[in-house]
UniProtKB/TrEMBL annotation, chains A, B, C, D:
A molecular-function term among this protein's GO annotations: oxidoreductase activity
Sorted UniProt keywords: Flavoprotein, FMN
SUPFAM superfamilies according to UniProt: Flavoproteins (SSF52218)
Flavoprotein listed as a keyword: yes
Pfam families: FMN_red (PF03358)
Organism, scientific name: Siminovitchia fortis
UniProt protein name: Flavodoxin family protein
Boundaries of every NADPH-dependent FMN reductase-like domain copy: 3-146
Record has Repeat as a keyword: no
């Protein structure tokens, strides 16, 4: 049975992005990870340091292990300043370390083949100004060999605005069906 | 005399991005801020919280004050995963708080009219895969009313690679002249 | 009552893009213009020629007059090679001439304030690879002051494929409602 | 010896784009094709027509044969409305026909492996608003398997403006060296 992991990049509880994502995973057994509840330090680039990367004392490894063991990843992020939140960016930046970490010898291989989805809500013309972020996720997924299976962009500013975004809700419903079908097929 | 502030988003000392930026500010009296030397916490979105944003105990305010008082800002960031570093993203995310902070009543007004430049070095086809990041900076600067005066994309992976990127170095040299002319004209 | 003009850039009759667009204008009194049925020559840039632009003997003026008199424009184009069709591009290129044509003294003013929509169907990951085209339409509309009121991207290759694209059809239905509401409100 | 073909999409003689391109091919034996001097009709999509594509009576085949036999292609286009000119777009649109044309049985195979460069001059912030066009060329080249070896964006409006764009001229000079080195190496 396909394992679904949701990475939440929102800094606010029950954010619009979370509300939208909950529709997409309704009735699914998904592992939900709220990045704001963990400490993930910014990467310190040790690729070219004599002794490589320093060990980091934070929650990153715990999270990335769950990500590595999943089959489907939902990147659920508010659009902050036209891109993913810093919370999520710091998490992804750390992949550069994991790619060289002997404790994760097959990280890239394990990531490749996973299905990735992006769910993002923004308040400032997200269907226009959020497209660069979609491009970036595409590059990111391509680098590690994940397939970019789809994305949903929603519009909202104030709490619960997203519940008025008819098309985003329909897309979430459709994604829910799709995820259930994938789960069933495994 | 125009005040120049450089925001470094690199996590590594004397990174390629820093080396390139140093060429651009050679002989200029610029305030250099290395974000990695400070603590900037991820934003906690308090826009819709009953009591607004919580006060944050970190170095952000010290930095943003210097940014607010500048005339020209250089955003110097390595391209990590096709975007600015998480260090820099967290810093910019916090602007959402400053925009509502009574201690910075004229933040947007003070930011508008500043000139912004981006200097970025990446290792994976940055002239192609870094363009989405340029788009994002454009939206960011537009939001606060800064003019996007120019950008330099360089290519490099290993330490000092950038010193082989002839076009990036020439661009930095040209930017240096431009900055000196602006300084002199104030 | 708001006047709606549809510009079809498809080279094939009852193309997927057309089928999708027909859903969006069902029951509306819209002026439909099939660019393939007209001759629109490529622009010859006469902006800096001694005598300005040469008069062009083709159907362009007839079409642009109808566009100029509309309130809402639907740009309905297949995604050919990751952008609008050459048919439609040649039509838009000619706007540079109209902007300087004494027979259209208020062209820019008349265009500004119109609402523009883009409907586009592509066969090669249009939700990813069609985003650059959306960017371009945004710049185009911004230049002449039109508001970019929305876009629908559909997926399809073979004839009638689009009828299987549930989300695109729903979006077209929603646009239909929106257009009817605008019409009624005028 | 590597064969270089230049495709000019300008509608004006000695346009800024042409001037820039001439710097890049100075002293090189390159085949220069001015699309404005030829007739290339818009594609009529016959992929799904009973009898396939109709034969087209124009100059397209003559041009594409020279392109097919080259090793390096320079796409030299003014930025019209934030994309390549309609002249050039119509030419590329026709590749869809060539891909199915029995007279060009190895078209895709022959195109793959070629090196492609884009040289483009625009008047409205081309370093920002021209990036979507670069994205499109990337997708185009990727589709047929060509490598996107580089691009130069220049700024200019009035005739000869480009001669003031120091960075563009330097880039062209550098490209010239690069092309000569490639030629010599074959």
């Amino acid at each position: 049975m396909a394992k679904v992991v949701v990475l939440y990049g929102s800094s606010r509880t029950t954010s619009n992005t979370e509300l939208l994502t909950k529709k997409a995973i309704a009735g699914l057994d998904a592992k939900e990870i709220y990045l704001r509840d963990f400490t993930v330090k910014p990467i310190v680039d040790g690729r070219h340091a004599e002794h490589g990367f320093d060990e980091v004392d934070d929650d990153y490894d715990t999270i990335i292990k769950q990500v590595e063991q999943s089959d489907i990843i939902l990147f659920s992020t508010p659009i902050y300043w036209y891109s993913m939140s810093g919370l999520m960016k710091n998490f992804i930046d750390r992949w550069s370390q994991t790619l060289r970490d002997p404790e994760f010898p097959d990280f890239k291989k394990n990531m490749s083949g996973k299905k990735a989805y992006v769910l993002a809500v923004g308040g400032d013309e997200p269907h226009m100004k959020g497209l660069a972020m979609i491009d970036q996720f595409r590059w990111i997924f391509q680098f590690v060999g994940m397939s970019f299976a789809g994305y949903i962009i929603g519009e909202g500013n104030k709490p619960e605005d997203i519940l008025q975004d008819e098309m985003a809700l329909l897309s979430a419903k459709k994604l829910n069906k799709e995820l259930k079908a994938i789960k069933a097929a495994y």
